Each structure stands twice: as structure tokens, then as C-alpha cells.
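Reference record
================
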Amino acid sequence: MFTLLPPLDGRHVRLEPLQPRHAAGLAEAAAGDPALYQLSPVPQGEAAAAEYIEAALAQRDAGTTAPFAVVRLADGAVIGSTRFWDLVWWPWPPGHPRHGIPAPDVCEIGYTWLARSAIRTAANTEMKRLMLAHAFEVPTRATSVRAARWNGSGRSSRASCGRTGWRPTAFRGTRPATRSPHRNGRE
């Protein structure tokens, strides 16, 4: 099982590892405008939120995601969800500094949705900044990602990623992010 502890704290939001106790808050966050979530898997109602969490935790237990509840610090309200997903571990050879490290080498940031009241606030930018910093800048934590991908197809998603200071060109290189840099025993 892959987990991320402790929570990731910012000035406006805290990303808490998703748990069943977040179901009521997720249901309340999603209740404002169901039309807003036509293209995203966002739970409508507390029973659907419990199922959403159960599915996310099953994926976490399978080692493919690390889901979070997004909590607004000002009032402690759950305002949405996001996750690291499509976690990939490269087969580092024995003797390589990354051999045996239980952290993924590649992940995507996605499954992100926020309550209508949190859209166009600091929440989206800050949660992406927290996740990118955790993935790239803090190698002693559970994640020590060497490459990341996100869809970024939406204008607001690209804009929030741009506000973090990270640019898509930082993630482009001569090989796809899902391929190991290891070739024939050399990096």
C-alpha cells in the first residue's frame, strides 16, 4: 500500500490523505452545482461519496494512486479532492541510488475537483504547488518523483499550474516521462 503522510499543509488548504471520514464533506462540496462536474467523476450525495472514497482507497491499496481530500484551512471544510495517480516505479538496477526506494518515479496529478465556492480561489493553485513541491523537492518523503504529467487540457488547469511557477517545459524532455532513464546499466 502506498500512502502519503503527513498531510500537505499550505496557507489556504491542507491536503489530507483521503479517508472514509471525508465522505460527508465531499458530498457537501459537490452538492452546489452538479452541472459543473459533467466531465469529472464527482460523487453526488454521501452514499456516492463513500463509494468514491472506497474506490480511491482500493486504487491506493493497489499502489496506483495517492488520493487526498482538500480541506480549506479558514474553516476546516472539505472543498474537493485531488490525487497523485498512475504511479510508476522504474526498475532501477542493484547499486543504483534509487534501487529499492519505495517511492514512485513518475506520477500524474489529476482527479481534481473543487466545490463551486473554491473555484478561482487560491485553493487550486496552492494544492498543485503543494503536490509538485512534495513530488519534486522533498526526496525524503514518500514520493520522490523524477517526472510528472498532468492533462492540463483545460484553460483553468493550465493557468493554475502556471501560477505555481512550474512550466510544462519543465516536464518535457527527450523521452516520455513513463520511461526509465536507465539504459544498459547506465543512467
